[in-house]
Amino acid sequence: MRWSAWESRPVTVLCVLLAITALALSVLPRVEWGQGVSGGRASWDVILEHFGIDSDEIERSITRPLETEFSRLEGVAALRSVSEYGRSRVTIETADGSDPGAFFLALSDAVDRVYSELPASVQKPRIVSSSGGQSPAYIAALEGPSPALDDLRDWVEREVKPALEKRQGVGEVEVGGGEVREVHVLVEERRASALGLSFDSLARSLQSQDALQPAGTFTTGTTQRALSVRGRLADLEAIGTARVALPSGSSVPLNSLAQVVYAGREPDTTSRLDGQ
């Protein structure tokens, strides 16, 4: 990675935390990289985020369904979970002698089954290798001269994070700081009310058009891959032109009664470096 690539980005004061939940070789030179283990057992963390939702609802709507689904998998030795504001993390530890590759495929299918039943606002699941530790092994901070904080975060999310996640032995990479952009649907309340629509019914109508369903597995020789059917609303235009069902039985495009825009998410974390 060349420093010139970092300096060329328009960035202002920003602290980006890249937390890798695998021990770095530079810290512990004798660590053997690879599948996370605890007492000779493979383990994974399954992480789902639903921004703006409190821990009780995260526990009810995400964590418990995940644990129920995972408990049915053959080879599970232990399940641990943490439900917090906006995030669910379930740690799965396999029994001795289990095939990690086969178990990971079964785990991926189980995650897809639960995810397909969740609201569209739940973020895409992440399955990462776990060592059982929660402390970061490496933290990096970036800063620069431009006022566009979200420019650097977008670049880190798009370029740096995927590159680090591909490194052998890396468990999880987290990014903090900057502005997180998300889709906001700004409903014209009077227009919606005149059409007999409530916010809940409007949300359900959109959710029904944003689908992700498991579709079994595809086997080629010794390679087996999990398949899914995706029918997701890909961009602002697709969301804006999505048809909203009315009580009368007809439908109207969403953009006839709401604005669909990108905007910054309400901050839920703070990262500081030397007080800034």
Distance between the termini: 26 Å
Name the quaternary structure. single chain
The helix content is 25-40%
Number of strands: 11
Which stretches of 5+ consecutive residues score pLDDT under 50?
Answer: 1-39
Architecture blueprint of SSEs:
Layout: H1 3-7, E1 37-38, E2 41-49, H2 55-70, E3 76-84, E4 87-94, H3 100-115, E5 126-129, H4 149-165, E6 181-187, H5 189-194, H6 199-207, E7 211-220, E8 223-231, H7 236-241, E9 243-245, E10 251-253, E11 258-264
Antiparallel strand pairs: 1-2, 2-4, 2-5, 3-4, 6-11, 7-8, 9-10
Offer a concise description of the structure.
The chain is an alpha+beta fold and 276 residues long.
Would you write up a description of this structure?
Residues 1-39 have low confidence and may be disordered. The protein is built from seven helices and eleven strands. The protein starts with a helix and ends in a 12-residue tail after the last strand. Strand 1 (37-38) and strand 2 form a beta hairpin. It is globular and about 60 Å long. It is 27% helix and 26% strand. The protein has helices spanning 3-7, 55-70, 100-115, 149-165, 189-194, 199-207, 236-241, and strands at residues 37-38, 41-49, 76-84, 87-94, 126-129, 181-187, 211-220, 223-231, 243-245, 251-253, 258-264. With 276 residues, the chain is α+β, with helices and mostly antiparallel strands. The strands form four sheets. Strands 1, 2, 3, 4 and 5 form a five-stranded antiparallel β-sheet that branches.
Can you tag this structure with a few keywords?
two-stranded antiparallel ribbon, 7 helices, 276 residues, disordered N terminus, five-stranded antiparallel β-sheet, alpha+beta, globular
